[in-house]
């Protein structure tokens, strides 16, 4: 990929349409390296990562976002956490004893699967939107979310190249800007027809500026400053201490007696935090025995 781990926002001077392009490499590679994910789950994680990056930029808020795929099949949970600074992390959970890889999404997630989007602004109330997981996949599900919540025409195209040494993913999004009913035109359909010609080979090999020129060379495109995307995990010793502090001290000391220490493992980044009997005693009776999260 010519330029990776970057989000680009752009608009069209002559049309009421906004758009985004994201190209990801190292962020995805870090997420996929945490576990030996089967091929189909790698694809879903990659698409969900690109979609979350695009979605976060579109919503224009300050705070955290979680996009989850929840199902009843052998693949029962996939999540990408991110924020307005484009710091991302992700994880998937599946039944390793009965899982069978499949390109058919419904065979993995089962019936009544859903996409859950949770937005937690730095200031303001938490919001959660839920839509049924579309048979067509992640992109169609996000499109349905926008149709249900913002009622603005929105389309996404998601791409994944599963190179084991350097996997990469990318995405394109276009969205109609709010206009009055009498101002609606064929502008959006025109941009849609141009954008849908994008290919995986182009988006993984061309720099963003060349990619946009290839798609829209006859249009006036205003490209805003690019925003870097990176992997970042919010786990910490302080967060673990806060979780332990909510439990009974005797119960924790009993676990330490049996196992030598309490080990807390982060699914997202692989970090492990260990607390022995002395650490538990200090947590409940030390000078600073009111843990704080950061």
Automatic annotation (TrEMBL):
Cystine residue pairs: 233-235, 266-269
Known function: Redox regulated molecular chaperone. Protects both thermally unfolding and oxidatively damaged proteins from irreversible aggregation. Plays an important role in the bacterial defense system toward oxidative stress.
Family of this protein: Belongs to the HSP33 family.
Keyword field: Chaperone, Cytoplasm, Disulfide bond, Redox-active center, Zinc
GO molecular function: protein folding chaperone; unfolded protein binding
Subcellular location: Cytoplasm
Family annotation (Gene3D superfamilies): helix hairpin bin, Hsp33 domain, HSP33 redox switch-like
Lineage: Bacteria, Pseudomonadati, Pseudomonadota, Gammaproteobacteria, Celerinatantimonadaceae
PTM per Swiss-Prot/TrEMBL: Under oxidizing conditions two disulfide bonds are formed involving the reactive cysteines. Under reducing conditions zinc is bound to the reactive cysteines and the protein is inactive.
Name of the protein: 33 kDa chaperonin
GO aspect biological process, one term: protein refolding
One Pfam family recorded for the sequence: HSP33
Origin superkingdom: Bacteria
Main location: cytoplasm
